[in-house]
Amino acid sequence: MTILDVRTSGLPAARGPLSEAVAEVLREPAGTALPTPGDADPLGADLQLALALCYELHYQGFPGVDPRWEWDPELLGFRARLEALFEGALRDRVSGGADIAGEFDDLLVEHLPGSGLSHHLVADGTWEQMRELFAHRSIYHLKEADPHAWVIPRLSGVAKAALVAVEFDEYGGGRADRMHSRLYADLLTAAGLDAGYLHYVDHVPAATLATVNMMSMFGLHRRLRGALVGHFAAAEITTGPSAQRMDKALARFDAPAACRFFYTEHVEADAVHEQVLRHDVVGGLVEAEPELAADVVFGIQATDLLEQDFADHVLGAWNSGGTSLLLPL
Amino acid sequence: MAKPTRQVSLELDGPVLVEGPVDLRTPDGKVVHSDRFMVAVCTCKRSKTFPLCDTSHRRKVRDDQ
Ligand code: FES
Ligand SMILES: [Fe+2]
Ligand SMILES: [Fe+2]
């Protein structure tokens, strides 16, 4: 297997036949043939990286890659087969239903003692572990809010206006230096890490890639607009308390102000975003399209599932005294 | 011309949502400014960032008792 390095070739290193095939064809002009995914593990590193490569063509692309690949029918067909496996795996593992209020009620109750990543970091985490988490989350936060922007033309009325208002806030209210993605770049730099877009893609495991691929899949498919909105609401509801614990942990490490600011901004912002998402975006969407309630629930449950997988991976590695990353920082 | 009516939403057991930008005057004479499109004002008085809501109003349950 050819090992590619994102820093020299612009593409991440392959992790199996699927990601290798995509990385290979992306170096050719658009139109080159692609393989069938076969029985690849839908949540495994190879399929998740292959999917991340396909999706990235719609975001920033890769240096040296023919931009026409973005709408290449062969590659889109290949991506659709990966997505069918991924979505199928998610649907198999969630409990389903259409009780949005019940799902929100569950998320709005804080369970004590908590067992998540931020609980660990605030109680007995190390600064090195904190930096690992920064690297994992950089895959998403450096494109923070981008996957959600795709849903805008698929919404209407109250839901659309409210989602755009939240996105405006995520994008810094019109000020580039206040964009949440920029605040995260500042956090990385302050923590002595590389703030380059996708710089840590070779470092992160499948579980990290899956959390971002889920957002891209929900965002790019109009059919899944309910799931995207459900995911967004779930993320906004859970961020506030965890951001507060992250800030507490960072205070314990005497971390630079830029690291803490990313989280304190999210404590304040997401207390608002949560309300707007629940009442106006989700509320507005299901009022206009009641049949989407089950998709909203799917988005909430899939988010919870993949966040749990991610936390299990990271805490599992830390609890056995190891690193949660594939490469050292 | 009449000023546009400002929308304020009240959340049961949660914050009051006010369209920003606003200046919030606290009982101890402080003024907290927020220019967010919507501002969540704490009503439970538990917020560590009072007068802004920080989700401390949420119900907590102990699973270990
Ligand atoms: S109302 Fe939310 S913290 Fe007080
Ligand atoms: Fe944000
Ligand atoms: Fe947010």
UniProtKB/TrEMBL annotation, chain A:
SUPFAM superfamilies, alphabetized: Heme oxygenase-like (SSF48613)
Q: Which domain of life is it from?
A: Bacteria
InterPro entries attached to this UniProt entry: Haem_Oase-like_multi-hlx (IPR016084)
Q: Name one Pfam family in it.
A: Haem_oxygenas_2
Q: Record's SMART domains?
A: Haem_oxygenase_2 (SM01236)
Q: Which Gene3D superfamilies match?
A: Heme oxygenase-like
- Designated name of the protein: Iron-containing redox enzyme family protein
From TrEMBL, chain B:
Q: Which GO terms describe its molecular function?
A: 2 iron, 2 sulfur cluster binding; metal ion binding
Entry-linked Gene3D superfamilies = CDGSH iron-sulfur domain, mitoNEET-type
Any Pfam family hit: zf-CDGSH
Keywords linked to the UniProt accession = 2Fe-2S, Iron, Iron-sulfur, Metal-binding
**What are the record's GO terms for cellular component?**
cytoplasm
For the Iron-binding zinc finger CDGSH type domain, which residue ranges apply? 19-63
Superkingdom to which the source organism belongs: Bacteria
The entry's protein name is Iron-binding zinc finger CDGSH type domain-containing protein
Protein source organism: Actinokineospora spheciospongiae
